[in-house]
Amino acid sequence: MLLNAASILSGIGFLLYGLQCLRSPFMKQEFERFKVPQFRTLTGVLEILGGLGVILGIYFPPIGILASLGLCLLMGLGVVTRVKIKDTWIQCLPALFFCLLNGVIAALHLR
User: Fold this and answer.
1) Cα angle 91, 7, 5; round to 5
2) Helices (DSSP H) in the chain: which residue ranges?
3) Closest C-alpha among 16, 13, 7 to residue 61
4) How far apart are alpha carbons 47 and 14 in whole angstroms?
5) Whose CA is closest to 100, among 58, 61, 80, 71?
6) Taking the model in full, what pTM does it have?
7) Biggest alpha carbon distance in the chain?
8) In degrees, to the nearest 5, what angle opens at C-alpha 77 toward C-alphas 73 and 79?
9) Are 105 and 7 contacting, i.e. CB atoms less than 8 angstroms apart?
10) How high is the mean pLDDT in each 10-residue block of the chain (111 residues)?
11) Which of 53, 65, 57 is nearest to 15 (CA)?
12) Total domains present in the chain
């Protein structure tokens, strides 16, 4: 039950955020501010694929494990990027939350 709820929360969050990465002018500005504009499209695609993978992982656990670990890594890199550009901890919290959430999802799959 907890695994399913966490997977759905993460999956929907990443689907929405991934679409924003691909379409939103604000996200284009954010990736320029992060000093990694060349990774915006890749990040958006990986977030969409990861979001779908985490949801599919409810039915196919190996996919869920890989997707949640990938998203955990992606968000860990997001936290590092935000710290590097001196964002506040409040600005870092969403990436940190989703990093930890996907780590928990992977751990729940593996127990």
Assistant:
1) 100
2) 2-23, 25-33, 40-56, 61-84, 89-110
3) 7
4) 5
5) 71
6) 0.95
7) 41
8) 115
9) yes
10) 97 98 97 97 98 98 98 98 97 98 97 91
11) 53
12) 1
